[in-house]
Amino acid sequence: MGIQKFVFCFHNVELILSLGLSLTPVDIKRDSNKEVSFSIGESIRDEDIYIIMQIGSGIVNDKVLELLIMINACKTASARRITAVLPNFPYARQDRKDKSRAPITAKLMADMLTSAGCDHVITMDLHASQIQGFFDVPVDNLYAEPSVVRYIREKLDVNNAIIVSPDAGGAKRAAGLADRLDLNFALIHKERARANEVSRMVLVGDVTGKTCIIVDDMADTCGTLAKAAEVLLENGAKEVIAIVTHGILSGNAIANINKSKLERVVCTNTVPFEEKLKLCPKLDTIDVSGVLAEAIRRLHNGESISFLFRNAPY
Amino acid sequence: MRDIIVFSGSSNPELTDRICRNLGLPPGKVELKKFANGETSVHFGDSVREKDVFIVQSGAGHVNDLFMQLLIMISACKMASAKKITVVCPLFFYSRQVESQASKRGVPRGAQHRGSKVPDSVPQSPKLPSRANVRDPSPKSVLSQRAVSTHSSLKTLHTNEASIANPTGYRSWIAQSGTLIANLLTSAGANHIITMDLHDAQFQGFFDIPVDNLLSKPLFQHYITNYVPNYKDCVIVSPDAGGAKRAAALADTLCMPFALIHKERRQKVDTAQAQSELMVHSNPSTSSLNSISFATPGFPGRRSPSSASNGHSAADQQYVATTMLVGDVQDKVCVVVDDLADTCNTITRAASLLKDQGAKYVYALITHGIFSGDAMRKLKESQIDKIITTNSVDQAAHVAELDAKEMVILDVSRILSEAIRRINNGESVSMLYDHGW
User: Which segment of the chain is annotated as a signal peptide (chain B) (predicted)?
Assistant: First the structure.
């Protein structure tokens, strides 16, 4: 078994450092006609390759094509095994045929990764865990929950808190977290008119005088979160804090958060948002790079990963 | 025609409209947009069940977005029970990757451009510097050293040399995307590809599905015979050795003389010396700004195109490219033929060389005019007298920009629509290789 090597990582330098490894020198260029060209600066023959790609908002398609080209280049360069580490799986929300002739793009992503030559995928808090079934290769879906539990225990008032799910779809996730923390649980029911838009909201449960922790897997324009915070405060909540795994924060999310009644919005660093952190004092980060690093270490050594589903390393 | 529906991607809706007009069909209803986070959304307004679906998408503009959009459209049609999905892609995606990977010496294509005699395009990727900034302040010395060699914003010969100059003697492994693109299209669900003037005819072999490579040659033939005065006295010129076959075929058919421009690249400076120089500058203690300022003197941006034929300038120490003309063009009208013009370095260089060699008038016949970066500015300043290209790429913006110079757009929609009609009817397409339009 060759020495483990990492092909590339755009933002998550600390993740690589925590494994004590170096990056393989690679060169990614965008030609003037906007095609991607990629070259690898050292031999990767018979190596265990991990390609870490943080895909946030904006240039999603460019990142996806970059990733596919990198995987394919590694495959043709005789890598032994190629693992794509995608903390935020792209197109995860287009996972079903909700209208006639709607694309199941998550399935397309799975097909594309496999046909490019990907042998294993590590991801985190998939929008729907069923997406794992779209793949013909193993998918390790890690959970941010242990890290979130630690954050809540360390930084928030656990005794007077209540976990709130902003929609019915996230009820299971929120209920799981409430169980772990031994807290009560409330749910907001909403009627959505169109994508990225919110309409009417109804609260189920009692939040009077409590610190509400809204838990979701993804925050995009943050319209839902802002509305949910209003509903909760109208119902007598003391303060509202949102904890989301993937802080995509696209469009006018920052403005939405700043003018909303949310006390704080906490995201993990699966999506890079360093520059947004400066624009918005309400944002906070949970570092999950340790979880990913440990998963990579365990995967490379052939150890079980399921320990990480309940426990956050270090 | 039964059970046929033509959809347009967002790259070239005008071409699709023309194709549909020729076929006597309304274009299929499709809503293409993006979600707030940048993911592509596709919604078809027409049923595709058991239909022969054609999707028109050209590979120019924001290539990766367009390609993903195409894949999503194919996949959605497949999932919606389309009978057959044909991709009509006049300019194919990533079609140049195959051949242009490396020269004989293994120098990546990007590096070859650096040695050119015409101002290079400014890289159009605004995201890159910020990305580099994020990675630069890394605490460990190993990483920052590596980060210099992977510095994506430094698109110069020197960075390429740096990644090649590995202590292990390993030469960079360069991604070849041809097979990948073919596999992605097939796995998304495409059953048939229609394309035009593929840069490499070998690209067809990457697919497991039929690929119809249509030719623009008859169009150009028609243009030359009808619009170029005394065309028998003109000379067909290929701007590089790679396009010689294509140009020679055109010259043969029209019984015209033929000339070729040959590019020769010689190394002037000992590479070992250049590399040791580079090592000093990519030292982790120096910031990335230093290496940028170091790289700039070699950046061939400050020379006029007129010095093309004998460019031994002091600034260009790495490579000396000599272009030479094989054939006689003295007092002749030249027709430069190429399949693709992107940054327009090749074509403008060829034109100035031809004028230096005494050519009277220079036509440029280009199938796919991508004209990215500052290509339009270069064309305006160049010695080319008339540019003839096709609407395989949306040319509306280019025509508007190029007011002073005459630009002729030939219409490829008739060839494409006839191919679509024939494929739908199960007739032979080979007639289209030699039509008289």
Answer: none
